[in-house]
Each structure stands twice: as C-alpha cells, then as structure tokens.
Amino acid sequence: MAREKKPAPDWERIEADYRAGLLSVREIAAAHGISHTYINTRAKKFGWVRDLSKRIQDKAEALVSTATVSKEVSTETALSDKAIVDANAQVIANVRLAHRTDISKSRSLVMTLLDELSHQTEHRELYENLGVLMMAPDDNGRDKLYEAYMKAMSLGGRTSTMKALSDSLKTLIALEREAYGVVEEPPPPPAPPVQQTTVVIEDAVAAARRKLSTEY
After folding, report:
1. Does an H or E element contain 215, and which?
2. For 133-182, what is each residue's pLDDT tens digit?
3. Angle 133-137-141 (CA atoms, 0-180°, nearest 5)?
4. Which of 2, 84, 128, 156 has its CA 20 to 30 A from that of 101?
5. Chain centroid to CA 100: how far?
6. What is the pTM of this model?
C-alpha cells in the first residue's frame, strides 16, 4: 500500500506567523505539523525577522479605540508587512472588544443583584412573612429550607451578600477601566521638607559672634 504523500508546508502563512512575533516558533511548527528547527533554518536562509509585534499591538489599540472592526480579514496572497499587521491586530481587537462586552454584562448583573438586595432590605418584613407562609416543618418540627431562607434574609446574610457584590463590582470596574485604556496618573511625589535656611544662617551668625567675643 502506497504511503499517502504529506502536503507541503504553507510557507507564506508560516512566514507571516513568524514575522508577527505573537506565537513561539514551536507553536507555529506544531500548528503546521513541521519541526521548529526546519522553520528556524528557513527563517535564517531568507532573512525573516520577528519585528512586527509592536506594530500589531499599536494597530490593535487603534482598532479598539475607533471600534471600526471588520469581521472579515483579507486573505491576500501577496505577503506584506501591512497585511500581517492588519490581520493580527484584527484578532487582538476582536478579543478586547469581546472582553468589553463580557465585562459590561457582568457589571449589569451585579447592579441588578444590588437592586434586589436593596429591595430585600427595604421590605424585610414582607420577605420574612413570605418565609413563614412557605414554612413546612418535618416530623421533628424543623424546616431546613426555611432556616436557610431566614439565614440569607438576616442582617449577617445580607451584609455578607453586600460585601461579595461590592468586591465583584470593584473588580469589574478595574477590568473595565483597563479594557477601555483608562489609566490614572500616579500622584505626584511628596514635596521635600522645606529647609529652615533662615534658622541655619542665624545660628551660624550667632556662633561667629560668640567666637569673636571670646577672642577679643
């Protein structure tokens, strides 16, 4: 039985991935089913340089800030720096925009839960009465579901929920600011202590006068 011939590597795609600099050579080799040493040898032979990662990141920033993201990436056969930068920047931009959407949904959910907690606190008696109506003791006179419900409705339970939601909101706000590139300027360093120049001069003059008075 004849062995099936292995397809030739897609060197245009391999060169694009290599020059983009986002994947390691081993990762590129694994994706294309060849040896990483084979790629390094060819890169050295044809002078490939992994120098486009900075340009890709800059392009991604521009795409995210303007939100002009296309769902289709050009599949030009002619290899160029611009094609590599645009294609990889598109991938990064899509990921970051997806992060923004996920963070926004999570933030909205936390705010909804906070509203529910606020309603429970404002109408605590109503919720306690509802628990009493649902109460169904067992043969031993206990209702574990009712006990769990009242524990959640207690001050301690509501406080614990409030803390968890506050921590979640704090984390989401930080992630949201990072996703939108909102960076706070660090506070200025504290001013150095003011040197008491006048006091130093006066002490020096007084010391000089005392010295003169003792000599003469």
Report:
1. helix 197-215
2. 777 777 777 877 777 877 777 777 778 888 887 888 788 787 777 776 66
3. 135
4. 84
5. 10
6. 0.43
Name residue, tokens 């997806």. 98
The structure tokens 């606190």 sit at 121
Q: Which amino acid, 171? A: T
User: Residues 54-97: pLDDT tens digits?
Assistant: 777 777 777 766 554 444 444 444 456 777 778 778 877 887 78
Q: Where are the domains of the chain?
A: 8-51, 99-179
Taking the C-alpha atoms of residue 27 and residue 17, their distance in angstroms, rounded to an integer, is 10
Q: Which residues of 30-57 are buried (b: 16+ CB within 10 A; e: fewer)?
A: eebebeeeebeebbeeeebeeebeebbe
The closest alpha carbon to 17, from 27, 9, 8, belongs to 27
pLDDT single digits (tens) 173-214: 877 777 766 656 666 666 555 555 555 556 666 776 776 666
Q: How far apart are CA 29 and CA 38, in angstroms?
A: 8
Collapse the DSSP code of 190 into the 3-class scheme (helix H, G, I; strand E, B; otherwise coil) and give the result: coil
Query: What's at 56, amino acid-wise?
Result: I
Which tokens hold the place of 50? 């992994």
d(CA 44, CA 41): 5
CA distances from 108 to 111, 122, 160 (A): 5, 21, 20
